[in-house]
Design goal:
alpha+beta, Lipocalin, Immunoglobulin-like, 2 domains, nine-stranded antiparallel β-sheet
């Protein structure tokens, strides 16, 4: 089935363009997410316990080296006769990790990279874009069977991760804003309108904020903590 799907993509798709390697590719990337559309599976790396830091480094001589959970790997990339990027070799170590979740993660991670080479599934495509948080670049690699890897070229520190993990939600009526901060680190919250004007400041009772008097629209919520400051956008209905 995968081979038939691949043939359909190769002969019918006009959305995937042959690409020379972007020079931004040649650096170290930290894996954020590993997903498999066909099996509806995914791994968010920060959710895996015990913690792991999977990386891959691409070099301008077209070699790459990396680490999964407990195994390393190396390989090479190149272009096929149609100038599409391909994995031309892939060699992982084969130790069994101590944790089942690590073995499952590595199996899916290595299947993506090794599958392109060992199973002869063909080319891959990739995109390098600014990350949504503005801290660096994001690399997304896609296989012909709609699996993918998402990397960033920076590693969040524990404090930065805690800042990004602060969640904002509404009650059904959009009269209250709930702030979920597992680190309990908030010192102050300010809400700004789209003109940059501070329209509400909260210095205590951060878990629930009364926003009943705010008009519908877009607001920026600046959250000051003892770990740093993060600004999040909300849309009040």
């Amino acid at each position: 089935m995968k081979r038939l799907l691949l043939l359909a993509i190769i002969f019918c798709s006009t959305s995937i363009n042959a690409q020379e390697f972007d020079q931004h590719l040649f650096q170290t990337w930290y894996l954020v997410q590993n997903y498999e559309t066909e099996g509806n599976q995914e791994y968010i790396v920060t959710d895996i316990e015990p913690e792991i830091v999977p990386i891959i480094t691409f070099y301008d001589n077209l070699t790459f080296y990396g680490i999964g959970a407990c195994n390393g790997f190396s390989g090479t990339i190149g272009h096929d006769n149609y100038n599409y990027p391909v994995v031309t070799s892939f060699l992982p170590s084969l130790s069994v990790c101590d944790d089942t979740i690590h073995n499952s993660f590595e199996s899916m991670y290595f299947d993506f990279l090794g599958g392109l080479f060992l199973e002869n599934l063909g080319f891959f495509s990739y995109d390098i874009t600014p990350s949504a948080d503005g801290l660096g670049l994001e690399l997304t690699m896609h296989s012909p069977i709609f699996n993918g890897l998402i990397f960033r070229n920076y590693l969040l520190s524990t404090s930065e991760k805690q800042l990004q993990d602060i969640k904002l939600t509404f009650n059904p009526e959009h009269t209250k804003l709930y702030v979920n901060d597992s680190s309990n680190s908030i010192d102050n919250i300010k809400i700004y309108n789209t003109y940059g004007q501070s329209i509400k400041s909260i210095s205590n009772n951060f878990n629930t904020i009364d926003i009943a008097t705010l008009a519908t629209g877009i607001y920026l919520v600046k959250i000051e903590t003892n770990l740093g400051t993060v600004t999040k956008k909300i849309i009040k209905k």
